Amino acid sequence: MVNVIFEIAKKEIRTFFRQSRAGATFVMLLIFASISIFEIQHILSQSGYTATALSSALGSFLFLASVFPATLAGGICFMAFAAERDQKTLEHLLSLPLSDNEIFLGKFLAAVIAGFAGLLLVFSVVIGYTVFSNPIVWNAPLLTSSLSLLAFVVSPMIVIMFALISTVLSRYLSSRDSFITNLASVGVLLGIFALKETVTVDALVFNAVLAVIISATVATLYVFGARKFNRESLVSRL
Known about the structure:
The protein is built from ten helices and no strands. With about 240 residues, it is mainly alpha-helical.
């Protein structure tokens, strides 16, 4: 079963990156990484080039940089069934000796793998450029509790959440509708970023609450998606 799921995931990733929309995804990478780097540089120039100031700035703008990986994961999942339906290959997929669960998990895993790779890439670009292009005074550890929670829990969970949302919704949407919905998801993340920057709550508390909310959402979506996914619902929309 595991091998089958990975084979489906590899097929989805290859298919996505052969499409022209994959180029638009990397344009978004450059946009959000550039914005994050510019803002972090601005904060350091005002607050001083210290590890404390850098950690605080990363705590804000690594979340913004997470928009790219979440959108990447969402894009792959939104195309998972919509593209197969449009290209008339969905019927062939459903005729293969695969269980409903294997198809669902294979599509979902493709988005998570690509999203995590995008997360690693964009974080490496933002952190690497900032650290090596500035004379940082290491007056404190860079990885605070708040930043660690954001980088290793909140951001990965956001990728997983958007992958699940996209996998579930893709069954009902065309390619065009999927693309529009994925763009709308960017607005949701930007709204959370704006809220994070405006509320007067300790960053650690905000990230902890956000992690709990996202974890609960992921668990609910997985149970709902896995139970509701079936061949009949897809065949009826061919």
